[in-house]
Predict the 3D structure of the following.
Amino acid sequence: MSERQQGPYDSIARRWLALAERRQAHFIELVDSGRWRHYFTPEVLNAEMRKAALLRNQWTLASSTDYYPINGADQNWACNSPTFVPTTLSGTFNRPLNLSDARLDTGIISTSATGSGTSYGIARTAGTSYALVGAATSASAVTTKAMWEVTIAPTYVAASTLPVIVNANYTGAGTVTAASTTLTLTAYTEVGGVETAITGITAAQQFTGTAANYTFNIPSSAALAPNQHIVVEVTMLVTTSAGAATGQINGVSVTD
């Protein structure tokens, strides 16, 4: 294929190309640094980046003497390429919280084999089971509580819903009062040693003797941000009208 000859407007086209390249580089820097979250939603950013790529390709074609798209692939790439950033970043990553990091209100890590009073204990049989186990009921109600400190992932989209998933069940032959056998999640922001309760979290949920996941949503109204420090607290209430039952937490994870 013969080269295209220089035209009278090539120098103007090259200046426009330089501007288009700077604009495209600006978007790339926003994505790499994460600062795009301050200015765009994922959907708007993807649309702007596609436009920037298309403009850059068009000005490259207009200004170059030896640049040719192959079967229109360069223009098609800008129009039909996949998104540059995920449109649903929050909820993409499910991060388990270490059960061994569960703490009491006093900050002590619970390490006993079984729970006592209002605290959980770590119960582990190597290669078989690993859980946080609460104190056993005896025709009574027992409340146990554990907390975790969490730093929200840098990929989290600011002010979006933050799901926390708790896997739990109870064991024992006691007669369980279903309506009073529940899981409750509370959460707090923490800045400079000052905690503030987050409101609007999913209400308490009943749980059963079969291990299952229970999702609690920290609402978008909490206005959380990437890398923010929060405290997550799980409270388990187990009630029996006769006999004994023991609640246990098998896993806790944050989906951010």
Remarks:
- Helices lie at 10-33, 42-63, 73-80.
- The domain at 94-255 is CATH 2.60.120 (Jelly Rolls).
